[in-house]
Input
Amino acid sequence: MKKLTAILAATTCLSSAALADDDRIIVGFATAETGFMQAYDKPAQDAAMIRIAEINEAGGLLGKPIEVVKADTKTDRAEGAKAGLSVIDQGADMVVVSCDYDFGAPAALAAESNGLISFFLCAESIKAGIQGVGPNSFSASVLAAVQGATMAEWAYNKKEARTFYRLLDTWTEYNKGICDGFDWMLPQLPEAKLVGEDTFLNEDASIAAQITRIKSLPEEPDAIMLCTMMPGAVSAIKQLRAAGINSMILNGSGVDGSYWLSAVPDLSNFYVPVQGSIYGDDPNPAVNEFNAKYTEVTGAPPATQYTYPGYVMIDVWAKAVERAGTTETSAVVAELEKMVDEPTLFGPRTFTSELHHQNRARYLIVETNNGKPGVVDEWTISSPIPVADLMK
Amino acid sequence: MARYSILRRTIATPLILSALLLAFALIAWFVGSRPFNQTVIDIFLQVVFVVGLYTFIGNSGVISFGHIAFACLGGYVAAWTTIKPMMKGTAMPGLPDWLMQMEIPFWAAALAGGTFAAFWALVFGAVLMRLSGIAASIATFAMLAMVNAIYSNWSSVTAATSSVVGIPIVRSIWPYMIAAILAVFVAWAFSISRHGLALRAARDEPTAAAASGINIPRVRLIAFVISGAIMGAGGALYAHSIGLVTPDTFYLGLTFTTLSMLVVGGMGSLSGAVLGVLILSSLIQVLRWLEAGVQVGASTFALPGGVQEIALGVVMILILMFRPSGIMGNSELTGLRARTEKPVEPGTD
Output
């Protein structure tokens, strides 16, 4: 057994040595190929591969082809650290890690301690970056707080919502993040009033108690800020509507997708912020072209907007490498930090030396009307959320 | 005289096991691949955990589902004592001032983690060790659930379910090897000690043992505290191996992995505990490589993803089919041939 281990270890060593080569640029994916995170990582990774293929077709990056090496984190933190080290040993110039902060962090920390750039595929916690990993770590998505803030400001300005009710599912950091952004935005809206707030847990079978409290308000609130995610979101939404509460429901991007809508037939007055539309009606025709390409490559259209950050990630990183003229970490980080409203397919992106994440972003607003989702508007919050407020 | 003879008769076991562990460390060192190095670190940590489990389960015969709770206690001690004070302030603002300012090296954190876990093992054990059989097992499981619930919700002190990051990462293999070897020696020393022998007597013949004046809850408690300390130190080192802790790292997944390694290796044997880890971990590693793909001549041979978990289950079933009491059963590795506990005739000592 030990002999076999040694032989196998030796072969791995040889293959890694063979891969270290200056004629190509290597992107290492330390992401989940098995386990529950695979459902989140795979679509974003496929989108990243599409961007890599596009760059390679156009002559590569700095004239060199981009190659990809992979290691499976098995949706396990200890395996994540190994996967990170494994792609680094295979010569990765940049390390892509799992969507979720908790599962991506071990690999990102491995990259950080080896002086390499790491990108979270779609993490939406402020920790996924400088604050929770180090100065060379970035996230390709937008902070959850921006989603809550966007929905509050948009509903106030465009739907004349004045009374808000805040319903938080305390299950994850992501949910809390959405409501934190909402809490930050609300006092800035002069006539907006919070008429009540409540919490529940994603796994709660019934939110009857919370619904009773909403029903006992003198007037139905204009909008309910629902900070939750799958799978509990469906049951909460169904119960709210079944109880006859017709207020508009504002959400985070976590409930994007039409796969669950059959569970709440004829859902209306329901709003979700998205980075790009999967429904074929994105105002940017290039996004619809991307959706077609994605369908062609993977055999199915994107299921949620969380496919898109993977594309953005390779896009901004490749631009920074091109401008720096090298893949050397500090030069590329410096170029990334110079990006202010850098245009991408899915809205402008900004990175600063203080924040490697988006504390302001353009969101498309998807309205579900009679069970049919579609883009109705777009909104960018009037000012970025200060980092100090995000760190609370 | 009797004490020295038992020492001489059994010292070979920890020495052989240490040599095995050293061999693994040397392989990792010669190979020089960082992911492989990390794999071997993982193996050493599992050796610590499984040896910790063995110290209690092997000697007392009571199956504990709760020991990973002590690893959790130890892991968070590492987080509390080694993260830079500034980072601690934002993640865990509820820590007392003296703890907030503390920044100690990883080995001290491992000792502190072991001590903290041992203290709680003493508190829990004082109650739990009066139970026997399945009642004791379920009670230890309840303890695991309780610790997990507290650590998942006490946000000001444990950051609740969020990952606590900033724990200095130790990627050198040697501290983990030393910890594994120390755990083996502690477990060995306990099992040949007066209390260890008394506990094994109580395991095999509780009525006769009690009649001979053995205070069963007390000797069990001693084993529980020692094994708790080993688990706590292991938990702290685990935190240092990946640089972060969360409560769900130390829950059912790790509990069942470590227990199954102990069962496959042989519950009543220290050699079984260590071999269980080494054999199963090596098997997992080989399957992972096969999953990732191995070059055979011009073609690449790869197993479909997920085969590793299935194959591991099948191999474990096969081992238990042919060796129901595990690979080692109740025997230990002692030089030339395996020595079993039973055939020692009365009066030969």
Observations:
- Chain A has a mean pLDDT of 91.
- Chain A touches chain B through 40 residues (CB under 8 Å).
- Chain A has two domains: 2-142+287-337, 144-274+362-390.
- Residues 2-142+287-337 of chain A form a domain with the Rossmann fold fold (CATH 3.40.50.2300).
